Amino acid sequence: MSALLAIVAIALLVSLLAGLVPVFRGKAPADRMLAAQLTGTTTVAILVLLSQVMAMPALLDVALVFALLAAVTLICFVVLATRGAQE
Length: 87
Known about the structure:
Structural class: mainly alpha
Oligomer: single chain
Number of domains: 1
Number of helices: 3
Largest sheet: none
């Protein structure tokens, strides 16, 4: 079981590192925002995994806060992007 968790953790870390490249080098703001959402989702998955491995249920609360912040950030981005398009 621990080998499976290690493989999942490595896959999540690779996904996180791969998602950081477009955050910094993305051509359009929407591309950067989507990459940031990918890293946020991966961070939530890593926190949930760590919560189970370390038997720390408080990390689930932190993961929930990260997920809510990611949703609010995306909503704010869309509102600002559409407001700029209308002007």
